[in-house]
Amino acid sequence: MATMKAAVLDHPGPPDVLRYRQVPRLEPTPEQVLIRVRAFGLNRSELFTRQGHSPGVRFPRILGIEAVGTVEAAPGGQFQPGQTVATVMGGMGRAFDGSYAEYTCVPVEQVVALTTTLDWAQLGALPELLQTAWGSLKTALDIQAGQTLLIRGGTSSVGMMAAQLAKHFGLTVLATTRNPAKADRLRQNGVDHVLIDHGSIATEVRSLFPQGVDRVLELVGTTTLLDSLRTAAKQGMVCMSGIVGNAWTLPDFEPMVAIPSTVRLTSYSGEASDLLNTPLSWFAQEVATGRQSALLDRTFAFEELVEAHRYMEANEATGKVVVLMP
Prior knowledge:
Blueprint: E1 3-9, E2 18-24, E3 32-41, H1 44-51, E4 66-73, E5 84-88, E6 103-107, E7 111-113, H2 120-124, H3 127-140, E8 148-152, H4 157-168, E9 172-177, H5 183-188, E10 193-196, H6 202-208, E11 213-218, H7 225-229, E12 232-240, H8 255-258, E13 264-267, H9 280-288, E14 296-301, H10 305-313, E15 320-324
Parallel strand pairs: 8-9, 8-11, 9-10, 11-12, 12-13, 14-15
Antiparallel strand pairs: 1-2, 3-4, 3-6, 3-15, 4-5, 5-7
Helix pairs in contact: 3-4
């Protein structure tokens, strides 16, 4: 039986519970694709699973909800060996083993082929990042040129990507950071108004836009959601797509009090099928020509995965963290 090197999580815990070992390499069925993993981005959902907060996950488990690489085998003929592909979600790293390994075996319907000149590091930064930002803005918030958009959690990788996309589509962008030292990075990314977030920014937003903002992308989560709702204009919309603040629930939630009249509250989490509707090839070309950025913060070698998890958990990144396979 063929084997592969993988980082295995036997039980929840701190970063160093991730252990390297040789494990059996799955043989794909005609409904699956075996991908030689070349790079994968790190995601906070993997951090939560490692900490034991993801319900229903059975251990041991190989984490990793996204990957880019090359097709090793596709018995159903949907892809050719050697093709460059990307895959995200669909149970990766939770219901079945994910991308923290030399190979990953995934359902064929959650694989897309790409033609790109990007290196593996930049390409590895894009799939989940672009899907979440694109889905939040275009599917959930239905952004339109001329609108105002507040991004709560602007220095997160999704926040940075959302700002890029929003400026591309002609919006005025406000974004928050808790760290004043990161304000210039937001401005360099096209943000029009940078707000230092001390937990309550509604008054400051209203001083800039007295009627409120048209759209709000909430990436911090329930710790700031109620305040974000107060920044929205009448007929405005708030979409919660992240939990950088590490809080999942909202205690004593009173919708009639918390949600301003006529303001709409929605969410976006994304599914594997949403990757098919995400213009990944287009954006990769935009990055290749320099018109957009992959927002790559830092790369780690696969042997440095524990250190990469520590870096992610410390919230040190401004952009995407990518792990490169040998």
